[in-house]
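Lab notebook, bench 4. The sequencing result for the construct came back, and we need a structural model before the next group meeting so we can plan mutations. Quick request posted to the team channel:

Model the 3D structure of this chain.
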Amino acid sequence: MKETIYQTVCPGCGIGCGLYIRENGNGSVSIDFLKSSPVNLGKLCRFGMKLPHYYSDPSSGKVEGLVSGAEEAVKAAASRLKNAGKIAMLSAGNTTCEEHIAFTRIAETLGTVVHTGIPVYPELPSECHPHLEGMPLAEIENAEKIVLFIDPYVQYPLLVRRLLIARRNGAHIISAGTKELHLAHENRDLSPEQYAGLELDSNSVIIADVHPHTDSCHTKQLLNLALETGARIHFMKPFINSEGANRLARDKTGMMGISHIMDEIEKGDIKTLFLLDSDPIELMPDSDRTANALSKLDNLIVISSRDSPVTEIANVVIATESLYRKRGTFINAEGKLRENSGQEVTGIDAMSLLSRELGSEGFEYRQLHGHLHEKMIETLANENRKPEYGIMECAPVQHNGACTLKYLFNPFMWANQPDDNDFVLLNMNMVRSLKLRKGGMVRLDSEKGSMKMRYRVERVPDGMILTARKLQVATGTNTTVKVEGC
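Done. Here's the predicted structure in token form:
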């Protein structure tokens, strides 16, 4: 059977691990290691190993639920966009830089902007934005002190090897998050008022992340910490091209976070939503509420390389080639340009046709790729000028002391993929107070209903329940729940 091999990048998160995709003649795929990849040196996390499942549902073009060809779907999308009211366009970073630029060209024609869905950019002063951009991961290995505000094991697994190298090189690692990490020398559950006790300096590295549900107040607090101590700060990103999408954004102050977009849809202010390889049902904590909000739209138009919950309900789906087949580039979380070996440009051709249908000029890959390199030169020049920003004030969210179910977002959750972590994490104090039995289950009740889950004991704060899976009782990133043993 004929087999085609693609050298590509894992779409699980922003690290950009290199790998090979082997595609058989029947369209099925398998994964092979890319030993020469400078990012991951042939290693893959468990999400990367399960990529055949991610690629098992290539997208099909549709118009009002009926299968259609690309040209028919493009023309149907153009007809709807010409007669639309307020349009929101979302590209979270799940496709190439070149396709993102093409989507931006269409936004300019429509008189709108492309939102990347990450709220911290519009909520921070523009002089802070360069500090959200990536730095070489190798710098982590040479740090003297590292403070973690993420769980790398769950959220960015290939970062763990960098941290272990740093530890062997003598780095002192502190976990300042809500969960104890085995690789850390110290595990502290710190409030912002206690950050000064970390005793950081210019040889220290702070590692956090920004994603569609990041608390901008906490981001400000971390930037303040970096400013006051001289420590370097590195923000990880959740999607294969989150870094590229946000670097290429023309006007970050005009962007909205995905929660803001969904609020505007629920209020009826946004009537048309146009998506580029971005599924709000996957990206929002409460999938049911999101699907219900999307049903209120006059127009839901999707350009997608794979089937997902939103393609099932969209008015128009413009299908493109699978990600590994695309010709194009990605910018990973350390700011490095990664190139796909695929040569297909179905998505770009479809957007070029759509641009012409909307009365503007078409474009081709070469033009978009050239524009990318111009933007990269500008970005690199900005990196060489350390921006100045002042100490920022913010009002932290106050919790009411009730039990809180907290999402620990990770690649499986963002991509709506099956995950073996079918348990929640809670501490021994809660186990004892609930009189839970070994091997038993815990019942979680919220305003959305009730469910039972297996549990595992970890050193997490009292009253907190962590989950790395989407649960039907969740109403947001943090959900107040009642907990009982069963």
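The first helix runs from residue 46 to 49.
Will bring this to the meeting.
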